[in-house]
UniProtKB/TrEMBL annotation:
<keyword id="KW-1133">Transmembrane helix</keyword>
<dbReference type="GO" id="GO:0055085">
    <property type="term" value="P:transmembrane transport"/>
</dbReference>
<feature type="transmembrane region" description="Helical">
    <location>
        <begin position="173"/>
        <end position="190"/>
    </location>
</feature>
<feature type="transmembrane region" description="Helical">
    <location>
        <begin position="264"/>
        <end position="284"/>
    </location>
</feature>
<feature type="transmembrane region" description="Helical">
    <location>
        <begin position="62"/>
        <end position="84"/>
    </location>
</feature>
<comment type="similarity">
    <text>Belongs to the autoinducer-2 exporter (AI-2E) (TC 2.A.86) family.</text>
</comment>
<feature type="transmembrane region" description="Helical">
    <location>
        <begin position="196"/>
        <end position="222"/>
    </location>
</feature>
<feature type="transmembrane region" description="Helical">
    <location>
        <begin position="234"/>
        <end position="258"/>
    </location>
</feature>
<dbReference type="GO" id="GO:0016020">
    <property type="term" value="C:membrane"/>
</dbReference>
<feature type="transmembrane region" description="Helical">
    <location>
        <begin position="296"/>
        <end position="322"/>
    </location>
</feature>
<dbReference type="Pfam" id="PF01594">
    <property type="entry name" value="AI-2E_transport"/>
</dbReference>
<dbReference type="InterPro" id="IPR002549">
    <property type="entry name" value="AI-2E-like"/>
</dbReference>
<feature type="transmembrane region" description="Helical">
    <location>
        <begin position="136"/>
        <end position="161"/>
    </location>
</feature>
<keyword id="KW-0812">Transmembrane</keyword>
<protein>
    <recommendedName>
        <fullName>AI-2E family transporter</fullName>
    </recommendedName>
</protein>
<keyword id="KW-0472">Membrane</keyword>
Length: 346
């Protein structure tokens, strides 16, 4: 048996090598990470929907995908032409109202807020504010580039989902090729990651919707201003596991204080505690499942590390990536029961 044949026969060494190669390729492709992740997320969500519909009705993928994408384009058109301008105006008004409150005599007369203001002056907020404005300008100038990325990802996901069966048949050719063992190992890791990603992202998306609905209802009852803008902010932050609910507490408390003083801040804090309790003890165990539960300490450590290496995307995909490695290392089996099995190489 040659050294090459021994390498192929040693599945553990072979798979470790393939995994390292994949990590290296992903590292090299970092400049394209936005389009890769967006395409993957769009494709994953649409594919899951198509598969679920096909379990009840036997229809071609195109019969589901084409009307779905047309509906999405129509909804985006309505959002851009009608709702986005309204939300932008409400957001500007919200910022102006908060600014006017902190410039008002009632704020200057509040001893509690003066103590906080004097304390915060130690952090040289003027310089930090300049840096923050610079960051915001950079984000605004990058909106056009991000918009192009989203459109390209949307188009790529459309062509992938509309040809699900053809792509599956084409992929089988690689598994049976001369170097089939290499593509079989890639398929093994890909299926593992999709199963892991599916469990975490689907659950987190549902939890984000529940958090947003409950918070929006509470804010409406409290008669907070510009609820649609706040609802969008809460939904985006809720996509960050655990930490998102806590992060959203800061801007909500600032706005609540400008509207109703300490009493409204107390209401917001009680709402955050109630929603966080619901997420921790009801939603996470029910939808994340005990198989994907991580201690809160590990969750924060993973989020900090993922944000450091992957940027903003790390806050969203950090947990799925970590649970994927837990599955690969055999620490904890994650995802659906139909995990991929080893493929024998002749």
């Amino acid at each position: 048996m040659t050294l090459y044949q021994k390498f192929i026969a040693n599945q553990q060494l072979r798979k470790t090598t393939v995994l390292l190669i994949l990590i290296g390729l992903i590292y090299v492709a970092r400049p394209m990470m936005n389009i890769i992740l967006l395409t993957f997320i769009f494709t994953f969500l649409v594919t899951q929907l198509v598969r679920k519909i096909q379990t009840y009705i036997k229809i071609p993928s195109a019969a589901v995908v084409v009307p779905l994408y047309i509906l999405i384009i129509f909804l985006v058109y309505l959002a851009v032409t009608i709702y986005v301008p309204q939300i932008a105006k409400q957001t500007i008004k919200l910022g102006e109202s908060v600014y006017k409150f902190y410039q008002s005599p009632s704020f200057d007369a509040n001893k509690f807020m003066q103590i906080i203001s004097d304390y915060m002056k130690q952090f040289n907020l003027t310089e930090q504010l300049k840096n923050g404005v610079t960051t915001i300008v950079n984000y605004i100038t990058g909106i056009g580039t991000m918009g192009v990325t989203i459109v390209l990802s949307f188009i790529l996901s459309f062509f992938y989902t509309i040809e699900l069966n053809q792509l599956s048949q084409f992929g089988q050719l690689f598994l049976k090729s001369t170097y089939g063992w290499f593509f079989q190992d890639i398929y093994y890791f890909a299926k593992k990651f999709v199963n892991t990603f599916g469990v975490v992202i689907e659950a987190q998306l549902f939890i984000a919707v529940v958090n947003t609905v409950l918070t929006t209802i509470t804010l409406t009852i409290m008669k907070m201003p510009n609820v649609p803008s706040l609802a969008i902010m809460i939904f985006l932050l809720s996509m960050i596991p655990v930490a998102g609910v806590i992060i959203s507490c800061v801007p909500l408390c600032i706005i609540a204080f400008s509207v109703g003083g300490i009493q409204f801040v107390a209401y917001i804090l009680m709402m955050i505690v109630a929603i966080h309790t619901l997420e921790t003890y009801v939603l996470n165990p029910r939808f994340m499942s005990s198989k994907t539960q991580l201690p809160i300490f590990f969750t924060f450590v993973i989020l900090f590390a993922a944000e450091r290496f992957l940027g903003t995307w790390g806050l969203i995909v950090g947990i799925p990536i970590f649970t994927f490695f837990l599955d690969i290392l055999g620490v904890k089996t994650i995802g659906k029961q139909n995990q991929p099995t080893d493929i024998k190489v002749e």
